[in-house]
Amino acid sequence: MRKLLILLLIPIFGFSQISYKDVMSINSVDGFKKVVIENGYEYESLDEEGWLTYGFNIVRDSIEGSKSSKWMLYNTKDDRFTLSFGRRTVLGNFFGTEDDTSKNPYDLIVKDIKEKCKYYKIINYNGIDYVSYGCSDSSYKGKIGFVVSEGNGLIRHFPNPN
Questions:
Q1: Element (H, E) at 156
Q2: What total number of domains does the chain contain?
Q3: Which residue ranges of the chain lie beneath pLDDT 70?
Q4: What residues make up the domain containing 13?
Q5: Strands 70-75, 80-86: parallel, antiparallel or unpaired by DSSP?
Q6: Which residues contact 140 (CB under 8 A, 6 or more apart)?
């Protein structure tokens, strides 16, 4: 029975994989929307600070707020974006096993960033240190940074790093 459950869940994990190429292509709100919509994300909100938010398989709750393991945000006021990926898998949560993050979109994108881009420096944003890189094949202006914080893999665009 356990094997059957695992086989039924496998197709769910292969779907909606934001890639390094997708991240490198984001250079406008339109480009951001193209990437998230083509990868099965759904609109959540646009707040007063200009953050446009999309989530994957959003579970809406009027009391505790919406939940998703993957969030994509784009600031329409200054053309920067943030990608957030939960790094714990459904199987890891369900069976209490150690997670293999090698197939997690965050880890796959970061692996490509480290291989294809050049290290820039550590950038502190809101008290969190990001390792940042300059990528010659990116279509955005600025640097890309990444960090794991509170169990989430964060990839953030820095348009004008200090």
A1: strand 152-158
A2: 1
A3: 1-16, 88-102, 161-162
A4: 2-158
A5: antiparallel
A6: 24, 26, 27, 79, 157, 159
